[in-house]
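Blackboard transcription, Thursday session:
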Amino acid sequence: MPELPEVETVRRGLAPALVGARILRAEQRRPDLRFPFPDNFAARLAGRRILGLRRRAKYLLADLDGGETLVMHLGMSGSFRVDGDIQGAFHHPRDKSAAHDHVVLHMENGGRVTYNDPRRFGFMLLVQSNGLDAHKLFQGLGVEPLDEALDASFLAHAFRGRAAPAKALLLDQRVIAGLGNIYVCEALHRCGISPLRAGGKLVTAAGRPGALLARLPQAIKEVLADALAAGGSSLRDHRQADGSLGYFQHSFRVYDREGAACPTPGCKGTVARAVQSGRSTFYCPQCQK
DNA sequence: ACACTATCCTGCAGGC
DNA sequence: TGCCTGCAGGATAGTG
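(Written on the board underneath:)
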């Protein structure tokens, strides 16, 4: 479920159960997800206290005592579940999703945090906390989209001379870290930029942001803020850590709305679907230029 | 350097 | 009903 608003919503949901709490015991139920788990993963988690839970881009970072940080990425289908069931697990045998419960953290406070990931594109790593920024995963990461560093001149610099479509550039985590397919589609629609438009064409010859590009940072920040306020988007049956559903999917203007009337006031267009870099793009050919 | 593809994996919806 | 195809919120290695 993982773009920035979803990961941040997960972080907020997990924090009460994890921050300040000690991991009594950890279960690692398979050798790997996207990558192999670290050596002695479960044993290295046992007894550790979680000092804080942060987010960087789409990564969740749990800082542990002892100087290590547990780095978690949800991939496409990762989710966390928190239950306070101290008496023992209730796992319905027909609950298929339990087959994909890959990691369980048994907390000293009686809580239990389970990581479930059917597609296993997610991963967990342990990294020295003081070397996090230098780690390969974080080294090349672009700006946080909600940071003030994301502004029109930053985008003009990043897009200048690029032939790749705006969609591809916004999905590139080395430029902006945290956007994904949904929010890129939504942000481009909000500011009237076609996802097919070459990035370089949105920049003036002098390297300044064009009129449309100037609106993009605000569009990105607004759609993310709206999604955060809604608890993220819940496609299919994805749930937040506390079991509740985000509801921003009801506010999508173009994503997964092929054939619907364009919601832009005064626009008579119809939402279209295109495929870019193997992924669906939704946009209005009428008002996105 | 850049642009584009194929790929990892499972589940689900839609067509026949 | 069942089988098949395509598609899914991500990110990377590999190709030209």
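Lecturer's comment: Residues 86-94 of chain A have pLDDT under 50 and may be disordered.
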